[in-house]
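=== RUN LOG ===
request id: a7f3
mode: sequence -> structure
chains: 1
length: 257
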Amino acid sequence: MSSVTPPTAGTSGSTSEAPAKTVRTAVYFLHREKVSAAPRTVSAPSTAASAMRALLAGPEPAEIHHGRTTTIPSGTELRSVVIRNRIATVDLSGRYDDGGGTLSMRARLAQVVFTLTRFPTVDKVSFEIEGEPVKQLGGEGVVLDGPVGRADFEDLCPAVLVESPMIDDTVRTPLRVWGSADTFEAEFQLKVTDTAGRTAADVQVRATSGTGTRGTFDVTFPYKATRSGPGLLTAYFVSPEDGRPVTVDTVPLTVNR
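=== RESULT ===
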């Protein structure tokens, strides 16, 4: 079973005698212009800062091969991140504000927001650049009149956002999949394809809400693979208009028998 426990975002220091602890979390890149989770192992207790640095480093070669991209300008540096009253205030270097139109600016904001709100102690994010509060980002003037959360970037979220398993995870049966969705009548399908290209599972899922309201889902189901190797998790829904399957996202995996 593949699962990811949502990490904590502690900020307290540790003693020199204490062994370094690591936490598995996610950073969010883009896939087909929508946010997509990628796994990272970060050091505790400064997990939020470590996650941000991993995000700013950009996608790894295998993730780029699978179409993951970033709109955050290369060379952007983290100055600080402070969590207080469930709001993360992140201070970034001036490079973060360079170049790009409205879509690029909104996407780079969303990448930070989704990465930091992965931590259960964070609901929203407030932005600073070089120590100054951001009220407007970029030449296109993306207005930030206060802390922002995931709901502010619904247009950059796929109809089905798979939060676990993540890209290149190794999974086995039964498989746990969780995330959020906004689909017609809250229904969609999850399909596992094995290394031979055969369908190992194809299950119907119902989120807690849908049809204009994003709900959550958490399901566990068995699959039957012909052999172990590279596979694919596909989230799709059946079009209410013509009955055709519409793929909303794919997550490459290593599928074990």
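=== NOTES ===
Helices lie at 47-56, 61-65, 102-116.
Confidence is low (pLDDT under 50) at residues 1-5, 11-17.
=== END ===
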